Amino acid sequence: MSKNSEKKVSSKDTLIKVMRFIGRYKILLALSIILAGVSVVLQLYVPILFGQAIDLVIEKGKVDLDGVALYAGKILVLVLISALATWIMNLINNRLAYRTVQDIRAKAIRRIQVLPLSYLDSHSNGDTVQRVIADVDQLSDGLLLGFTQLFSGIVTIFVTLIFMFSKNVLITGMVIVMTPVSFLVAKFIASRSFQMFRKQTETRGSQTALINEMIGNEKVVKAFGYEERASERFREVNEELREYSEKAVFFSSLTNPSTRAVNNVIYALVALVGANRILSGVLTVGDLTVLLSYANQYMKPFNDISSVVTELQNALACAARVFELIEAEPQSREGDAELQDVSGRVDIEHVDFSYVQDKPLIRDFNFHAEPGMKIAIVGPTGCGKTTLINLLMRFYDVKSGSIKIDGQDINDVSRASLRQNFGMVLQETWIKNGTVRENIAFGKPDATDEEIIRAAKEAHSWEFIRRMPRKLDTVLTDESLSQGQKQLLCITRVMLCDPSMLILDEATSSIDTRTEALIQKAFNKLMKGRTSFIVAHRLSTIRDADSILVMKDGSIIEQGDHETLLAKNGFYAELYNSQFKLSA
Questions:
Q1: β partners of residue 445
Q2: Is-contact 579 542, C-beta < 8 A?
Q3: Which H helix or E strand runs over 548?
Q4: Range of the domain at 362
Q5: Domain-ending residue, one of 326, 354, 370
Q6: Residues 218 and 301 in one domain
Q7: Number of domains in the chain
Q8: Could you read off the pLDDT of 399-424 as tens digits, one per residue?
Q9: Is the pLDDT of residue 511 over 70?
Q10: Same domain, yes or no, for 401 and 495?
Q11: Is residue 339 part of a domain?
Q12: Measured between alpha carbons, how far is 45 from 82 in angstroms, rounded to an integer?
């Protein structure tokens, strides 16, 4: 989201969005409001009973103790029922709050699944995690406080006014006229505290991202002596967070004393005018006691809400960041057709692509691959090799031109069916916390142990798996295996899925020479009859490719098999000979 659009976000807009999620639970919402009404009405009826009881004992010689006892019994019953209603309302509010944040978090996760890689590449992992976990937790805390104060407060305000009107119209009108002053004071302060809380949550996200970056790359930090600079970066962000936090709490803390000051003035006016009405014979002492109690009850919701304004403003600021994620532009449209029975013919026609507008990377790219061909993609760093793979997999979409598989434009087929037909082994490995079986069967969860073991043997990972304490049932963490073993497991995943086409992006870069030779044999078996794209820096591994695409600055500058390209004595020959000299 752009900075301009961020500035337009207000606490009111965010609250409306939150209320849309809350509105899904209309029954719980209605029950909470009804119980709040019951509790408030009973609490507000108690002062009437107190006032009537007081009038039974203030006249000399007319003290009715039996009547007072009767009122006391009624008051006790009403208080108990009111307490029970409040307890049940709080239980419902808890469920309502937690279901709401559960829905918001679930929607945030679902949105991440459909966001383009360009969004994820432009936002740090730490900041995204902060939004989904910590910011939603903060929203949850705010909702738990807010629901109780909101529902009870609204009912209290309206019911109190009704009871006050029944006692004295003049005093009630005076209270209503003074109410907007309290509202304006609270709104003036809250609007400023929301902006501070927003900056606080944004800075907290940056801090989380920095911590995640430093801890995740601690070996690199230590190896290059970056500790002091890392600490200095953290100190700057930490200082910024402290500054915004102090300002946010300062502004929000002004709300409660300010509204209380206004409300105390209202209370004093009720007492002054009420005393005058007693002298005029319009009110009794009991009536004034009831009105003072109602004035206090009427103002209490404003005080309660202002006392938790810090948490509410913080919660809304966090919610605004979550909604930015939820409302982020999803990846381009999903095709309707299913890519099935793929033979592997690939046509790339006049493709243009750029990650940043006005900075083209791939320009007028054309290529044709017949089924079963082995295509190697080579070239210097930044020439567009990995970008071409990203376009084939629709991690990014072409700006113009088309990529077709078996004559079908990949923009017209579903991403799921497209990717199911590609087996992909990357240079970066990923092992999830789970058993060896779960890690291998990642793309084929219904695979049998026999299928998994067969794939492991073909990928030469069975040799170390069988030595593990519980073999396929051994639980792995990211530190359980060496980099080469992780790579072998990733290769085994592809072996198990048996896809129609293959993409190998430096797939053997972390494997020793002896194992690489074995893996190469396995790959040759796997690639037989399948269209395969191989991104390689070590040119010795792709000498048997049917076609080698030599890329530079986003374009194919040479194309042919190994011998043909060497004979041309061009850019490929220069790359190959330079590697040969280095290895020698």
A1: none
A2: no
A3: strand 547-552
A4: 346-583
A5: 326
A6: yes
A7: 2
A8: 888 899 888 888 888 888 888 888 88
A9: no
A10: yes
A11: no
A12: 11
